[in-house]
Amino acid sequence: MALVKRSSAAAAVTSGPIDDIFAALAQRPDVVSFAVGAPDPALLSTELVSSLSLDAIRKYGSTVLQYGMTQGFAPLLDEARNLLRNRHIRCSLDSMHISTGGSGALHNVCSALLDPHDVVLVETPTYGPAVKEFGSHGATVVGVPSDDFGIVPEALEEALARYDVAFVYVLPTFQNPTGRTMPTERREQIAEIVVRRGTSIVEDDVYSDLRYRGVSPPALCSFAPDNTIYITSLSKTLAPAIRVGITVMPPDLLHSVLALKQGIDMQTSTYCQAIAAEFLGSAAGAAHLAHVIDAYSAKLDTLVDAVERHFPQGFRWLEPEGGMFLWVEGPRGFDADALLGTALREGVAFLPGSVFYADGDADHRNTMRLSFANVPRADIDRGIAVLAALCEDTA
Ligand SMILES: Cc1ncc(COP(=O)(O)O)c(C=O)c1O
């Protein structure tokens, strides 16, 4: 019998198939893993972070080791405004806060927006940890049909007519898991619907700086600023361990979010925020980002080339213009979930697409997410050759 009483939130979240896959991978360093959606360790620059850290200490002294404002470290808030302006988001200081990563932002925002039994609409497929977060607040998560460009406007209209919705959660740029990007016109359509219906959007945008080709569409937030809570983070460009996220929202909501954040983690580490401010404001930071983009772009080229050469007929994939993911769909009857065990034995890993569907719908077992950022470039072709051969045998 459990001695410690659990909350209903703890009961609502259980470990899932992704946790099992990562536990298996931890025992198998030999595996070429397209499963992990983390940055390349070779691009996590200890030299850069130590020099940014020294610069921050020289500039701000012991302030960086002190408690600070819950809203965020002022120099970082200033730098963040420039970053947001480049994404066509014009915001005043009273609409921004610095969170402990994008994940912290999501938690803070959900704490302010969600009550048990509220409905959250999500794209299909969508980012799994967000679904877990919504579930931990007692929300019901409903998937809205989506195509290669994101959530389908007509389907969103239908869902909004059917449910009383707390918010719609979308990842318009280099989506996790599909890598797809919502074009400008679709963003305008979604924004128009949301504004007309008086609902809110949570826009999760942690990959948009990793663009390898093409032109960035304006953030969805820029088309519906009064209805959107916008979340971004420096985890994919600087380092996940710095744990810095940036959020924009209507000022009256920010007030509640900050009051709640005081109880959640008081503030995001001042030290990490100072490092992040140096990163965003320095030529060294810009040079690092350019280097990261070059390296991931080369990996994506290698991956696309390998997939084109090795995958059998009947498989299709979405070629992203950035981010970390390539989404593969096999023919009907192909079962990626069943393939994973064999793939691991043969030395290659991926995440079955089914784990990214909020409804756990068995219809999606023919899909896979291939994450390329964390795989050494030299291993990509070999890994894809093995995976493609297994797909050919089972499709
Ligand atoms: C879509 C999405 N949102 C949020 C996060 C969390 O980012 P952070 O490290 O900033 O908490 C991730 C991390 O993989 C992600 O893929």
What is the share of helical residues?
40-55%
Task: Report the top-level CATH class of the largest domain.
Answer: Alpha Beta
Unreliable runs: none
Strand order of the largest sheet: 2-10-9-8-7-3-4
How far is the N terminus from the C terminus? 46 Å
Classify the fold: give the CATH topology of the largest domain: Aspartate Aminotransferase, domain 2
Shape, please? globular
SSE arrangement, N to C: HHEHHEHEHEEEHEHEEEHHHEEHEEEH
Residue-averaged pLDDT: 94
Largest β-sheet summary = 7 strands, mixed
What is the CATH homologous superfamily assignment of the largest domain? Type I PLP-dependent aspartate aminotransferase-like (Major domain)
Structural class: alpha/beta
What does this protein structure show overall?
- By secondary structure, the chain is of the alpha/beta class.
- The protein has two domains: 146 residues, Aspartate Aminotransferase, domain 1, CATH 3.90.1150; 217 residues, Type I PLP-dependent aspartate aminotransferase-like (Major domain) (Aspartate Aminotransferase, domain 2), CATH 3.40.640.
- 43% of the residues lie in helices and 15% in strands.
- The chain has 13 helices and 15 strands.
- Helix 7 runs parallel beside helix 8.
- The radius of gyration is 21 Å and the shape is globular.
- The chain starts with 7 loop residues before the first helix and ends with a helix.
- The model has no long low-confidence stretch (mean pLDDT 94).
- Pyridoxal-5'-phosphate binds next to helix 5.
- The site of pyridoxal-5'-phosphate (PLP) has 13 residues, from helix 5.
